[in-house]
Amino acid sequence: MIFVKKNELHLMTWKEVEKVYKxxxxxxxxxxxxxxxxxxxxxxxxxxxxxxxxxxxxxSGSYCTPVIPYGYSEYFRGFPGTISISPKTxxxxxxxxxxxxxxxxxxxxxxxNGHAGNSPILDILCRDIKRDNGIMIGKIDLWQSITPxxxxxxxxxxxxxxxxxEPMTSVMHYLEPDLMRMDLLNESDRISNxxxxxxxxxxxxxxxxxxxxxxxxxxxxxKQGVMGNPLIGNKEIGEKIVCSLVDVCVEFADRMKNxxxxx
Length: 263
Known about the structure:
Elements: H1 14-21, E1 26-31, H2 46-60, E2 63-64, H3 87-102, E3 108-113, H4 119-133, E4 138-141, H5 148-155, H6 168-175, E5 193-194, E6 197-201, E7 204-207, E8 210-213, H7 218-221, H8 235-257
Parallel strand pairs: 1-2, 1-3, 3-4
Antiparallel strand pairs: 5-6, 6-7, 7-8
């Protein structure tokens, strides 16, 4: 019988999982969302978070759980295809996963988050676990981890970033090229103000050059669900982004392996 090295827990038997748990491994737990990303890109952005977590697990000799495909996407609910779960649900799902791992001695967990709406919820969870269980859990917010220097190397002096544009459009060109529908894009339809407020993005407005918080829904800012420029992205940029983020996750895992995460 040929034994194949596995890194995905859901493709292993419980006896195989029991064996690898004795190695005190790093476990990647990925989170994404199912929400609109403009008329041209697929709603399942969780695919990207999982692919990065899986590749990082393979490259670092770590392991990963199945992705959590839904997130807190309240402000995108006006677009068909968006499925949003409550902050409480995000918190409880993530907590239950971590507890299930910790019950079997796992102390080295990295949350790989591919959706900005999940980030503050997962921050609270990690703090709570640290306080209640004495375990240091790591988290990486993927798209916020693209440095200004790397972004400039990819795009030059142009900043095409924004929901429904970069980096997700390039990443999906790379991961799911046959599913992209660039033909469905129209001219920019960005709405610049609401009731006299200048709209910076779905949660910001400007007053006398100062940003203040406002709470717009996406369809109040753009009828297409696109902020930024999705036409600048391509498969090659997407591959560079994915490979770079995988390398960051591998470094994260390597440092976690050599750390005493049990406080």
